[in-house]
Amino acid sequence: MEExxxxxxxxxxxxxxxxTSKNLSLSPSFQRYAFSSWIEENIRKKECCFFQxxxxxxxxxxxxxxKCGYSKLKHTDExxxxxxxxxxxxxxxxxxxxxxxxxxxxxxxxxxxxxxAKYARVSTDTSPEVLYRLLIEKWKLSPPxxxxxxxxxxxxxxxxxxxxxxxxxxxxxxxxxxxxWIITGxxxxxxxxxxxxxxxxxxxxxxxxxxxxxxxxxxxxxxxNRDVMVNPKGCFPAHYVMDIQGQGRQSCLDNNHTxxxxxxxxxxGHYGVEIELRSHLEKFISGKRLGNKECSLTIPVVCVVxxxxxxxLNTIYxxxxxxxxCVILEGSGRIADVIAxxxxxxxxxxxxxxxxxxxxxFFGQEYETFSDLRIIEWTxxxxxxxxxxxxxxxxxxxxxxxxxxxxAILQALLKASKSSETLAxxxxxxxxxxxxxxxxxxxxETEIFTEESQWKSSDLHWxxxxxxxxxxxxxxxxxxxxxxxxxxxxxxxxxLCKLYRQLPSCFFLHxxxxxVHNGRSSKKRVQSIRVQAHTGEGETISLTHVSDEVRHLLGxxxxxxxxxxxxxxxxLDDSSMTLSKGETSSQAPLRQDHAETQSDASRDLFLWAxxxxxxxxxxxxxxQCRDCMSAALAxxxxxxxxxxxxxxxxxxxxxxxxxxxxxxxxxxxxxxxHNSDEERAQKLLVRVSxxxxxxxxxxxxxxxxxxxxxxxxxxxxxxxxxxCGELSVGNPVWRVLICMVFFPLIYTGFLVFRRDELxxxxxxxxxxxxxxxxxxxxxxRINSLHHTPSLKPLGxxxxxxxxxxxxxxxxxxxIASYFxxxxxxxxxxxxxxxxxxxxxxxxxxxxxxxxxxxxxRQMFYDPDGFGFCKKARMYINDLWNILDVLSILxxxxxxxxxxxSQLFYVGKVIxxxxxxxxxxxxxxxxxxxxxxxxxxxxxxxxxxDMFFFMFLLSIWVVAYGVAKQGILIHNDNRLDWIxxxxxxxxxxxxxxxxxxxxxxxxxxxKLCSLNGTDPLKPKCPVLNENQIPAFxxxxxxxxxxxxxxxxxxxxLNLLIAIFNFTFxxxxxxxxxxxxFQRYDLIKEYHSRPAAPPPFIILSHLYIFIRSxxxxxxxxxxxxxxxxxxxxxxxxLLSWEALxxxxxxxxxxxxxxxxxxxxxxxxxxxxxxxxxxxxRKDEMGSVTVLKRLARLEEQVMQSTKALQWIxxxxxxxxFAAKETQSPTLTVTDESPDTLMExxxxxxxxxxxxxxxxxxxxxxxxxxxxxEKVPWEVIFSSYMPTYHAxxxxxxxxxxxxxxxxxxxxxxxxxxxISGRGALRHLGPNLNLDLVLTRWQDSERSVLEFLSVREESxxxxxxxxxxxxxxxxxxxxxxxxxxxxxFKTIEAKLSEGTKVLEGYVDDCRNTDNAWIQTxxxxxxxxxxxxxxxxxxxxxxxxxxxxxxxxxxSKARLSSDQRDFLRKVAELHNRKx
Length: 1469
Known about the structure:
Largest sheet: 10 strands, mixed
């Protein structure tokens, strides 16, 4: 026993470690062992411990049967021969004991699909908490958002095809969308079978991974073939066979349920054993919190009823008494149809006779077995059911407005939450919480966000937070449409912190966790990281970490997105900054710009959605963004960076797809902007975005490698404008080249400047406006024109500076300089390369060093703030920069060798090779050409292809060369000739240079050396005695042919095919790639000094003096980065938002016109038409049947009425009051008429006829509405007598004479005697309404309420009294002795508001409560009010002043009392 306990403890310890550590994975066998150990400790079954033969059952069978229902073989030896129970009679409560269960594990159903479910045999006394732990912890079910208890007919019944399909579809839809659990009886009969079929249909048709949870709670003793599930160690799995034909009186489990709880009471063959445990489990689950801990609601429960008999009626009745709403499907049969028929009638018309008729109609032959007393009881219960209309929902197929069953179920729950006991706002909040938990935005639109409900933005902040954390984008959109302001929602920075702390498991969350951990490690604090928003020790995720991580993803050239006041830790330490030492210095100046950083709620929400790769939420937030184009490009950059750093390939692919999606958004918005206004669109590209790290759209697009965006016409127009500088874009190249040499031509108009174009355009506009004003006669526009600043033409010096400062002109001068450099280099190498460097060679060296200085300037010049590492990485990634560095290094190496006499010639050779590299660099000039630029890209791709192709080719070259050399030549030790024969000659063969030494006919011994002594000749092949090569000629020829076949034909054609494929692939994108890379060229020459090499060294000297000596900052250029003033920026962003709306509208229109959308609309229309036709056919047949049934019913009732009249006349007019005239049931009345009738009728007491008497196990005799008056004869009335022991009756009370003296004025109650009241007859009760004015202006009337500790609600102070001039003694404790006496003295000053009979659940036929409502109005300045206020403070919410209004938290009866008090004081209630 001790070893077993130690093993159990060890298993529990390992399981706890496994649950807390994600890195530890347990084997399936160990998990099963741990599960079995838990089952053995917590789950029990019941078995008979006393075998007593049942003679009635044993006679019909050959084997001996115990009174528990099991055979003798199923009992243990101790049960067959018990010593403790000798001489006793078998009793279920005494002779059934609990033992560890022996049936649990997995159950596999044979047949198509091979469904597998989990099961456990449990005792009837098992705690619901243990069962819930089994479902949640051991069977790994997610807690439900809704519990659907399906009940009804246990036998197979027929459902019409339409009702069946609607039930299947609706049940599965509500379970799927809300995450509900479905609980049934679990067997393959009746309503349970229909539920199983619905689950099966969903499993076959759904492609989603989610699984419907269908829990079957069945009786173990009636399950057929249950022996296969018995195994003390568990079955994994148990192979269960459904034998429907041979099940007899037993039932098979339904193979479509997912989980089974098999309830065992130790007996066999008794149905209904599971009902009590099932109700307890449902009640326990309904007490659990819904969703997260912050939710105030518990898990809602709804009962769905199909068909059913008397047992189902009891289930409905008990469920509604517990506050559970019920949905009854009309047309499913029997009791469901009975309730559906009478649900719209007034209570007075639901008579015993009507129930008799409906029972006979819907139960058929089964009706004959019903006694009159049971019909009376059922009538009373049906009346109570339809009286609780807020809990009753009838689903009728004929009503088009009701939709599917799922809508009816959810509407029933929402209707139940609209109880009169709660305030209006609380009711709406509960409904909205339910709708969000279920993720049913359609229900919220139709039932909650109506014209009746008025919402403030602050009232919906909790709902927005819940929808965001729960990933419910449709609700986010709905809340935004109904007035939620994102600015108000995220006004408190803690809300945004909570959102980040409750991120779902994603790559960004892991990065944040790592950043928090590194931040703590840098401070040498080793604590457990707390990623979630739980309070406690340790550092949590804050906006500091978010800002740093987003800056890492966007790039270090950006600024932090949150201000310094925002970037504080929300946990223990406010100074946590996870910056490396290298980053600290570079970020120091950036921290100074935090004050300029702007906050925007839509930006924050969009960023929160993007980092978790949530497309739907991000799309909603992006539509709200103010700076939408920057947001889309920033999202593309962030997602692409995370995709590069991520490990999960699938997640990375999703990120890339979302990045492409937002690049498409940016492209669409910019196209709209460019088509509307080109100038504004170009401003958007280079505008500094304060919301996204003070960067620009163009910079973000380049960093994100968004080639499609950069290749747009508008972006390229901006780049072309920057390329031309102050020169006009329309100038031909030849004119620019001429003016570069003959610059005086710029003063003649030969070259057009951009300023001239702007002035010309402005003049044309003014002339046009003057013409319009001349025609219209108005001077308003002319006056406004005078206020527009006029542009001045460029001066002479400005034109000259603009010409030579243009990047285009700089490029042409550098090209000319480079050609001159190459010409000088070639002259030096071929003509003027002396031992002592000549003047030309010295000029060449100076020229080269000017190039070196320019490369260094490009390396360190960082106007964008990238940082040295980023700048160096960008420099190295450029191929032309690599060629520049390589050519310079080779030149310096050659120069070093050339200056030494021993290596003079080697230096020249190196310089000659370097000349080749410099010439290759010349290809960079073609990148500016629109025609040749893309071809350079194709050449680069082909070079890569050819590089990898050479590896494949070298295999064949080396293979053939080595084999040929080994066959022909014997032991040649000259390395140069070995390489020539093994590599060089086979390579030349590919190009047609065939060797002569492999064929005897072409062999010439004079061309080779016999012993290999001649260094200028190859060694001869092996010769025979005739001086003829001895090698096998046929072999060498065959080898040559095979080599040529593969090398020349196969591999070369493969290379051609690769080149062709590369060309076709790159050709489509080469133009886009060229446009993207064109930016680097333009940016390089925009920042390059105007003077070409070697004169550029003077510019370098000027820059050095300016920056180092004079310490003047660099001039800020507005071409790539433009800082706008606040007014101009607001106007630009407003215009951008308008363009975004246009783009979204056009995108939606395009989507609606797509072929897929047309197909979906057509399919939906066809489905709707087919449903309408089916409904029309059914309605036609149903209408005819109803008319015939109504006609037959009226004929029968007319006959009965005539017979009654005849009998009455025969008896000379005498008729007992009990004999009732048959009530004609008119079924064609409208609901409005029925409602008006019910409002006019006066109902009898209701609470006094509750079926269950309070604080006892007694049940009242059922008293239907028509039998309540004492004047009506009720011969079968047999009330139960009850008198509580703590009463004070003088008489015994059991004597009929004593009881007849007191008769309840409200009528029969179903129970006689004193009951729980103090004495027979009226029991006086006093309800005190203490009122005062809240202020001197008498604007608000208040009343005093007392908290009732038992129920936790506020009530009016009151209680039982012996006389109306006394205070209830129960108030002494709540009011205090002094205050109690003071108020009691004022009773005579009170005003009697109401006095009379009270409909109380404690009333009986002979005892009832009679109350007096007394209002005492107090002066707000009196000492009594001061004493009450002191008592309110010291009572700790035991006493409370409330406003006299309909919002008071009181019961409905006490609110009626309050209404009369308000009328008494002339106040609106």
